[in-house]
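Hey,
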Amino acid sequence: MDKYNEELGLKIPAHVAVILDGNGRWAKKKHMPRTYGHMQGSKVVEDMLYVADDLGIQYFTVYAFSTENWKRSEEEVGTLMSILRKYLKDCVKKSMKNNVRCRVIGRREELSDDIVESINNLEEKTKNNTGLNFTIAINYGGRDEIVRAVQKIAQDVKEGKIAPEAIDEAMINANLDTKDIPDPDLLIRTSGEQRLSNYLPWQLAYTEFYFTDVFWPDFNREELIKACEKYNKRDRRYGGVKEE
């Protein structure tokens, strides 16, 4: 449920999902390698967790590495994995200090064993925290997530555990990576691009979208407040008609 921030006079979305875009272009503008942009971008994620919690956001989900990002250069992928390694380890101490619960969604099979171990450790250590719910999408693709969910359901049908006619939205939801997380209320994509890039297509069915030209490394508290201000001007009808 959205919370009202009295100081800002704004209704704050309960769940904000973010596509962290523009790291490489930000670095290029500064005549630096793309990898520098990713390192700066990871620092902004850390900063935004404090901001999100302070504003009253309850769930904050970021797109860190997609199933398609493996197509990038070996150097860039290697740097991204190194950043993830460090971030996942650092995140444990900071999350425990700030009462943040962390989850990771996406395919873990293609990730190295040490990264999977760090993910499992982060989730286990923070599972009882009751503050901000932080979700990181790593090696995540929305279509892949839906395919995996359908495969699990199909196996249950094959084994006679469920009948085909019993399959409904709730069952599909229960088999997604996000089964314990409410759908996002607001999606933010930075850098001026206006597409989902295979990010949470099922979950974003009735989400409000906010696109900004600001590159992710330049995103800050003021920019998040701007997004919330735009969110407050939206009329969320979920397919219905607002009564006059």
